[in-house]
Every structure is written in C-alpha cells, then in structure tokens.
Amino acid sequence: MLVTVNAVPLAVGVLLSCSTTLGEISVYGRLTLGMAWALTQLVVLVGGTWWHENRAASSFEPTSATTATSRSAGGAW
Fold first, then answer.
1. Cβ–Cβ < 8 Å for 10, 41
2. What is the mean pLDDT of residues 34-47?
3. How far is Cα 43 from Cα 50, in angstroms, rounded to an integer?
4. Distance from CA of residue 44 to its chain's centroid?
5. What is the pLDDT of residues 60-72, one digit of tens each?
6. Do 9 and 40 contact (CB within 8 A), yes or no?
7. In sequence order, what are the residues at sequence separation of 6 or more whose Cβ sits closer than 8 angstroms to the Cβ of residue 23?
8. Are 6 and 15 in contact, with CB atoms under 8 Å apart?
9. Engineering a disulfide at 41: which of 9, 28, 54, 67 sits with its beta carbon 3.0 to 4.6 angstroms away?
10. Bridge-partner residues for 29, per DSSP?
11. Secondary structure of 19-62 in the HEC alphabet?
C-alpha cells in the first residue's frame, strides 16, 4: 500500500521533470508547479510513512509461549 501511494506522485514528478516548461508554471508568486509537486510528494511520503508506522505498531503479534519466565522454569525454547 505504501509503495502504491508513493508511486503515483513519483511518476508524475518524473513526467514533470521531463518538461521544463511544465515545471516552470507559476502557481502562486514564486512557487512553481515543480516545487509545489515536490512538496506534495514530500507530504505524501511523510504522511504515508507515519500512517504505516502507526498501523504496524497497533497490529502487533501475540507473544509466543517462550518467555523469559518459562525458560527459567525449565520450559522449552
């Protein structure tokens, strides 16, 4: 999922980098389309990574039966 979400902005960024006239289009003041897209890419990357980390941390696997307590009591490794 994380790769898919980041692949689309990356592909558009590559297309924008192939055409300097598209990247130079002024969006707001001195902010160009190329810079706006680069910032969008950064936000998507950071946001997607944050979402992925939170989701991975919340869906932890149950602990195995082999804990330090069972090992000290003679349990199996």
1. yes
2. 89
3. 10
4. 7
5. 655 555 555 555 6
6. yes
7. 16, 17, 32, 33, 34, 37
8. no
9. 9
10. none
11. CHHHHCCEEECCEEHHHHHHHHHHHHHHHHHHHHHHHHHHCCCC
